Please model this.
Amino acid sequence: MTLHLPAADGTLRAYEPRTEPPAFPAGTPFTSRTVFSAAHVVADPYADVSPDAPAAVDWDATLAFRRHLWSHGLGVAEAMDTAQRGMGLDWAGAAELIRRSAAEAAAVGGLIACGAGTDQLTGPATIDEVRAAYEEQLAVVEEAGARVVLMASRALAAAARGPEDYQEVYGHLLRQAAEPVILHWLGPMFDPALEGYWGSAGLDAATETFLEVVAAHPDKVDGVKISLLDAQREIDLRRRLPQGVRCYTGDDFHYPELIAGDDQGFSHALLGVFDPLGPLAARAVRVLDTGDVQGFRELLDPSVELSRHLFQAPTRFYKTGVVLLAWLAGHQDHFTMVGGLQSARSLPHLARAYELADTLGLFPDPELAEERMGNLLSVYGVGR
Model:
């Protein structure tokens, strides 16, 4: 069947979807890299909620998607920004998500890390209140038995007077953490409220503060996740990390080259784009496990065009394309999002995401994906 996909200029063009399903078999964990996929949440489409109401989550579908990622050997990064933390999923919902996913991970032997932040704070806060909020969430993740990802805090960004406040808060948290954590530096392209994080609007100065925090507590830092969409800065930063501290790339624009690495090191991965790319990414990393860097790049490089499309500005709305692709791939029965964010991207944007994903062979059932994309087009008035 031919689909007529709308372009950004308002025209329609014919597209012939692929018909052959991909061959991405499930597999065991990787040996050369530690790889997490940040995972989305599946909304309950039948819940009578408003955009400002607490999230209504379809727990069965949400956990089933995590089992899908684990089945391919990927770790799950839970309750991160991909799960709409701060964009529809409040702390109460995130805490429930952490508990449920951590229990599921324990049941199936899956690797999991969960985000701890300060999003229970809803207004201006003092440094002491920020610290206490972090401690509350840190305790929830640790009690669930999961690795901790210390997320960037909007409240800390608003309350901090300079680098010393970041050093004090993070130092306090790291000293009391039961196990080494992952420190997450999320850039303002993902969340504008994080502008000037680490106490400086200049990235060079911010990098120095960040590295000082790590260097002061290397035994309590498993790794750092860098989400700045700046490959060279990540490379320079990872070369300065203390021995044994990993760099997890969060760069959804340059991940193949950063994971492949160079003669001075490489990045592990904690990526939102590995939500839709999971099986393909897993296959590529297994090729890398054999030492075949060229084969890894040949598999993963073509996916960058899709990733750059999903994460184009305003980058924080990349979740809409991620959930669209999960629906088209058959991982959920609807294209509904927490907070109504299915409307955050245009139809031409969604159509291009479908085309790029179909070209990559990401849909286990291409016919189902074609049917669902056709149904979405018809809702917008596009005939077949």
The beta strands are 3-6, 12-15, 35-38, 75-78, 112-116, 147-150, 181-186, 221-227, 246-249, 268-271. The chain is about 45% helix and 10% strand. The two ends are 9 Å apart (CA to CA).
